[in-house]
Amino acid sequence: MPRVTANGQVTIPKRIRETLGIELGDEVAFEQTESGYTLGKEVPTIADGKNPFKKYRGSAESDDTMSDRMRRLRGECPRDVSRIRERNLRRVRQRVHHQ
Fold first, then answer.
1. Which comes out higher in pLDDT, residue 48 or 31?
2. What does the H/E/C string look like for the chain?
3. pLDDT beyond 80 at 78
């Protein structure tokens, strides 16, 4: 049975942390119920009380690679790799030519 420290801290047993998905740095919430209190992982929210990650739920369900998704989020999609490759080859040739 966990004990309360002088600073008011309690160690949450590993089995309970794993069940609730609590990891280092997570915030937890204590809610009063008729029979006592419940402990739960606090969902990240912003000032208006909304979950900032809700709009991204399910957005990773695609055949795209993570790199493709990140390019799309940055507005770099579609990416023409052949142009980048040609530009890099020109730079290498210029360096070799100047040596």
1. 31
2. CCCCCCCCCCCCCHHHHHHHCCCCCCCEEEEEECCEEEEEECCCCCCCCCCCCHHHCCCCCCCCCHHHHHHHHHCCCCCCHHHHHHHHHHHHHHHHHHC
3. no
Using CA atoms, how far residue 39 sits from 19, 22, 31, 33, 68, in Å, is 11, 11, 7, 11, 39
* Backbone phi and psi for residue 15, each to the nearest 5 degrees, phi listed first: -60, -40
Burial of 71 per CB tally in 10 Å (0-12, 13-18, 19+): middle
What pLDDT does 86 receive? 82
Report d(CA 73, CA 67) in Å as an integer: 10
Summarised one tens digit per residue, pLDDT across range 65-76 is 777 778 777 777
Higher per-residue confidence, 16 vs 94? 16
CA distance 95 to 7: 63
